[in-house]
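Following up on my earlier thread - several people asked me to post the actual chain instead of describing it. Fair enough. Here it is, all 361 residues.
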Amino acid sequence: MAATHQAERDGGLTRLLRTVEALPERERPWCAGAVVTAGTGAGPLAEGAFGWAVRYAAYDRELPRARWVPTHADTVFDLASLTKLFTAIVAVGALERGEIELDAPVASYAPECTAAADHGITVRQLLTHRSGLIPELPLYEYQGDEARWARLYAEPPATPPGTARRYSDLNLLLMQRVLERATGGSLADLVHDRVTGPLAMASTRFRPPHAWLPRIAATEDQRRPWGKLDRGMLRGVVHDENAYALGGVAGHAGLFSTAADLATLCRALLAGGGPVLSPASVDLMLAAPGLGFEVDQPWFMGELAGRGAAGHTGFTGTSLVLDRSRDCYLILLATTVHPRRRPGDSAPRAAAATALARALG
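Reply from S.P.:
Thanks for posting it. Predicted structure:
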């Protein structure tokens, strides 16, 4: 019986890899390339790298075939909104340390957040996307960091805080400012000192150095009208326009990482959070509705959703799902914006997650 179950699981994991392998090869490819890793708290179960980290010279032109760069297991990807998970982990760690309180007003730590002060927005409302703030602002249109942050601080909620959920990058940008004011450290240092450093995630950081460039997947030939700025083909610099305007370090976007590093983080959370968080803090962060994490979302979690699975997606093609009920994780890092962005489609993410769920039973 055990041998039969093992064979079924191995077959399911093979199907998972084949699902991802097909993504860059379809008639209308979902992505130029992808790296996937699935595993449990004990370690990886299935890993694969498929397609191309760099394929296009421009939105309408491929590079000569000899200059295509294949994806590898250690390819570094722009995480986009997976950055929010790291900001959330730092925030929950700050709760654990007593540096902030979950239901305290944002303005008690960052009084410069004047609209948050006027409307009583709390830390919890930022982390659960219940502040009432709109999804984003064109901060990239303002000149200088002072003007960009001032624009953010002045933005009032569109609906009364606490009354409705609206996903917003602005929540994690304000959370960044709360954390920096409460701890005295920059977000980049907080992520390193409290998350990636303790977990030895050496391939995860904001503003990757030039020496990493050969390992980094390209993102978009960013130009108007589909983009918000005219920056050309991007590789090794953050894709998100607001994060770029803010210098590459932002609470909502900006981190680069590998599948292996993210797997290290997932295994730590499955094991109770050490050395980053306590088990009680992990429980608090991942319990519905989630603090920074999305919980039980079938649109990208497929059949992993339903038992408390937590995770997130990123605009560049990234996703992470952590399912403590099955003791498993799934990381899919893809380049869906290479050579240019397209309408959102999370069906492949959901299909990969469903394949893992069925493999594990």
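Residues 2-21 form the longest helix (20 residues). That should answer part of your original question.
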